[in-house]
């Protein structure tokens, strides 16, 4: 959010309709789920940087991870420490990593970018083909209480599609 937490507060205080209008007005074709306020890690690019980079994410694996209270910051720091070799593999990359606000440091959202479903399927079925990622998975499993993955395809109008 531009302006950090002050910008966040100003955004909502400046437009009270955000709390009262139908979701369809704001989200168009959205079909479910619920919102989270997320805080990006220092290694997660903001929207402007993402657009400027020209990065694409035709297939996204969204992981919602529950951790012990207060565990999100350390989990995300460790992911940042380990993601360089994954990104350097050239097969897929970390798109973004976020701590979920208002959850007592107990939830994180991680987004992975894949060039296609075949690559995602290979990572799922044969993680040891990707040693840096397999090492991260082993590390993550020691910290995670729950882990839910969801495969997404960005809409046609998305700047990462």
Question: What would you note in describing this structure?
Answer:
The chain is of the alpha+beta class and 161 residues long. The chain folds into two domains: 1-35, no CATH class; 36-152, Alpha-Beta Plaits, CATH 3.30.70.100. It has six helices and five strands. β3 and β4 form a beta hairpin. The longest helix has 16 residues, at 72-87. It is globular, with a radius of gyration of 17 Å. The mean pLDDT is 86.
Produce the secondary structure layout:
Layout: H1 4-13, H2 23-27, E1 38-40, H3 47-53, E2 59-66, H4 72-87, E3 93-100, E4 107-114, H5 117-125, H6 131-143, E5 146-152
Antiparallel strand pairs: 1-3, 2-4, 2-5, 3-4
Provide the descriptors you would attach to this structure in a database record:
single chain; 5 strands; 161 residues; Alpha-Beta Plaits; 5-stranded antiparallel beta sheet; alpha+beta; 2 domains
Number of folding domains?
2
Uncertain regions: pLDDT < 50 for 5+ in a row?
Answer: none
Helix and strand sequence: HHEHEHEEHHE
What oligomeric assembly is this protein in?
single chain
The total count of helices amounts to 6
Give the neighbour order of strands across the main sheet: 1-3-4-2-5
Mean pLDDT: 86
Q: Number of DSSP strands? A: 5
| Gross CATH architecture of the largest domain | 2-Layer Sandwich
Question: Overall 3D geometry?
Answer: globular
CATH fold description of the largest domain: Alpha-Beta Plaits
**DSSP strand content:** 15-25%
Structural class: alpha+beta
Q: Please estimate the helix content.
A: 25-40%
| Rg from alpha-carbon coordinates | 17 Å
Note the main sheet: 5 strands, antiparallel
| Name of the level-1 CATH class of the largest domain | Alpha Beta
Cα(first) to Cα(last) distance is: 22 Å
């Amino acid at each position: 959010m531009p302006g950090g937490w002050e910008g966040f507060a100003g955004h909502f205080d400046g437009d009270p309709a955000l709390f009262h209008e139908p979701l369809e007005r704001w989200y168009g074709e959205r079909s479910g789920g619920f919102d989270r306020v997320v805080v990006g890690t220092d290694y997660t690019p903001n929207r402007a940087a993402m657009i400027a980079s020209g990065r694409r994410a035709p297939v996204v694996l969204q992981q919602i991870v529950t951790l012990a209270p207060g565990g999100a910051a350390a989990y995300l720091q460790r992911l940042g420490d380990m993601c360089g070799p994954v990104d350097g593999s050239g097969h897929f990359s970390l798109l973004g990593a976020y701590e979920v606000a208002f959850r007592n440091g107990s939830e994180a959202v991680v987004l992975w970018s894949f060039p296609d479903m075949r690559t995602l399927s290979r990572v799922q079925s044969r993680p040891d083909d990707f040693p840096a990622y397999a090492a991260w998975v082993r590390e993550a499993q020691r910290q995670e209480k729950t882990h839910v993955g969801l495969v997404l395809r960005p809409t046609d109008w998305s700047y990462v599609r």
